[in-house]
């Protein structure tokens, strides 16, 4: 197995380490198939005695052929009973021979709760390895990145404990709290404007405020800016829009606002913040000039690019990022999940629509299930939940995927997932040596997403059904509905278009519709509710009641675009601008959810901790 590059210890060996990282990428992509074979064999030999592999009759075999013949291809729900046993405290080797160190809470959901992904200590090292490849790749395209700092808005989220005592938290929270991040060696590529204490502060206001303050104080040194997802970066800029007066006051006086009460944050910021009236004047002038166009390049003039994920549902934020940055390059560096970190973008300055990720063959054993489109027009994907033997045969290995073909990603990881369907659809866009590169096409089934929430059609349907039942007492019923993720303002919010059959609309007080909005929110999954309550990354849900006949017009419109009348089904989510315009032109009234839904960290039945 090619050896991973070690972290840098001083600036002098930057070039050498970059070369090592690039050589590593070269080696593993040239030898992709060998590496994959070895990865699988190592996982299987190590986990030979686990209950899961025994139960499925692998009998200690470690070869690809037997593995493919006997092991089922599974989804989270298939593993749920095993995962619940681990969560409840069973420490026997159920899925993995190594002790489960914690659960990573995925933004995907099952039965309204976050999925729990078991992980083991050594996975942190694998994640660090992927991170260590990013800047050497970037440096091939943008020189001088080792000469300045990165202003990255990074955040931790709350944790919970499972009944068996394991911590459950998001993968990035786990990473930022680990020594890999906190005690990272002095390295020009991980030199951030935000001190660790500001990132690790659980209070999202204090964390955001202090990170922005430190970013402004070091504005000349910043050469790149970013966050994980585009939505998070936009949130930071809009926080600045709201709070720049306070921030300027702090910069002018060199003292931190009294709302920042966390002592470790105050101490860390005080090492950076010094009275600087000139900088305060500059920031004040830029922020008060009436337009926020190009604010990023104005306040941080040496910025060369914005590092955020804008592939998948995040592409909705590209226009806003272009506006705030005067079209700086938007760079998507990596593709990862709670289950496993997958790959990196080897051509980071390409256009967002052309981003492709090269899966790194050492990260896991990858297989690919060819995707068939059920319906050419809507593009909906045929999605068998459990695969029969014939369908199982269709899974192909990393080096055998075909250019242009779409696949669902299936992974076997070191942490105890075997032939696990991640739920992402990827399209082969090219090859780096023998390793394929993929465009991220979409997340299967997801109809609505603002931030890390992923709401599927079934959840939406159930939530709408619960809410619409409140209309019965007013002799009204829901005839048709669709939805739209409105990100024109921040935070974005879900919009539902409702067409009603109603005897006398004047008899329904507005509070009934407001309550319907609230019932939908209460019925949605815990990631959505966390976004509303904790992260405040999602605004109140809105119901727009439309005139009768609107959905017939929608169908007529689809027919003019080539839909077949026999196949036409009302889309449960709309994205196409002319359709949204049509719906908006027919709105008779609109209502917002009056309060936040209920949410607490952890699954409903667990005790929580902070
Ligand atoms: P989570 O398990 O909550 O970390 O979410 C992981 C999911 O986020 C992936 O399976 C993808 O659906 C999505 N995701 C992660 N990275 C990217 C990316 N670079 N582009 C598009 N979607 C991504």
């Amino acid at each position: 197995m090619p050896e991973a590059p070690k972290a840098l210890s001083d600036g002098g060996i930057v070039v050498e380490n970059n070369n090592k990282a690039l050589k590593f990428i070269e080696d593993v992509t040239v030898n992709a198939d060998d590496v994959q074979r070895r990865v699988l064999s190592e996982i299987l030999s190590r986990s030979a005695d686990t209950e899961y592999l025994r139960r499925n009759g692998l009998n200690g075999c470690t070869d690809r052929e037997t593995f493919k013949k006997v092991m089922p291809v599974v989804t989270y729900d298939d593993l749920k009973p095993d995962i619940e046993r681990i969560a409840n405290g069973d420490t026997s080797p159920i899925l993995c021979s190594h002790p489960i160190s914690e659960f990573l809470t995925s933004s995907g959901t099952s039965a309204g709760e976050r999925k729990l992904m078991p992980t083991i200590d050594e996975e942190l090292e694998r994640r660090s390895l992927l991170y260590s490849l990013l800047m050497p790749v970037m440096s091939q395209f943008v020189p001088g990145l080792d000469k300045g700092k990165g202003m990255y808005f990074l955040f931790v989220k709350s944790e919970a404990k499972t009944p068996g005592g394991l911590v459950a938290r998001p993968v990035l929270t786990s990473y930022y709290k680990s020594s890999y991040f906190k005690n990272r060696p002095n390295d020009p590529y991980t030199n951030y404007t935000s001190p660790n204490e500001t990132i690790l502060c659980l209070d999202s206001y204090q964390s955001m405020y202090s990170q922005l303050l430190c970013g402004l104080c070091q504005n000349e040194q910043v050469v790149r800016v970013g966050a994980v997802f585009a939505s998070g970066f936009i949130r930071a800029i809009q926080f600045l829009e709201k709070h720049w007066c306070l921030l300027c006051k702090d910069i002018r006086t060199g003292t931190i606002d009294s709302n920042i009460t966390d002592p470790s944050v105050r101490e860390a910021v005080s090492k950076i913040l010094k009275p600087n009236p000139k900088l305060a004047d500059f920031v004040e002038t830029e922020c008060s000039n009436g337009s926020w166009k190009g604010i990023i390049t104005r306040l941080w003039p040496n910025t060369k690019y914005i590092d955020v994920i804008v592939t998948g549902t995040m592409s909705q934020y590209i226009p806003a990022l272009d506006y705030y940055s005067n079209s700086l390059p938007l760079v998507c560096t990596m593709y990862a999940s709670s289950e496993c970190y997958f790959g990196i973008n080897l051509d980071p300055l390409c256009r967002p629509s052309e981003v492709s990720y090269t899966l790194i063959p050492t990260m896991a054993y990858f297989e690919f299930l060819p995707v068939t489109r059920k319906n050419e027009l809507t593009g909906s994907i045929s999605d068998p939940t459990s695969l029969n033997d014939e369908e199982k045969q269709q899974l192909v290995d990393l080096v055998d995927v075909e250019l242009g073909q779409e696949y669902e990603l299936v992974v076997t990881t070191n942490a105890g997932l075997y032939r696990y369907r991640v739920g992402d659809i990827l399209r082969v866009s090219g090859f780096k040596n023998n390793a394929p590169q993929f465009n991220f096409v979409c997340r299967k089934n997801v109809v609505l997403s603002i931030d890390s929430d992923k709401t599927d059609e079934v959840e939406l349907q159930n939530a709408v059904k619960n809410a619409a039942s409140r209309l019965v007492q007013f002799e009204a019923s829901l005839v048709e509905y669709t939805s739209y993720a409105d990100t024109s303002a921040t935070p974005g919010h879900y919009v539902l278009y409702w067409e009603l059959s109603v005897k006398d609309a004047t008899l329904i007080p507005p509070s009934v519709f407001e309550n319907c909005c609230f019932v939908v929110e209460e019925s949605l999954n815990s990631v959505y509710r966390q976004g509303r309550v904790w992260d405040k990354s999602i605004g109140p849900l809105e119901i727009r009641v439309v005139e009768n006949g609107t959905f017939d017009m929608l169908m007529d419109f689809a027919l003019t675009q080539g839909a077949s009348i026999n196949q036409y089904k009302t889309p449960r989510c709309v994205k196409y601008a002319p359709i949204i315009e049509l719906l908006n032109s027919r709105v008779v009234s609109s209502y917002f959810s009056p309060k936040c839904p209920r949410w607490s960290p952890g699954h409903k039945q667990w005790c929580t901790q902070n």
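DSSP finds 21 helices and 22 strands in the chain. The chain has a mean pLDDT of 93.
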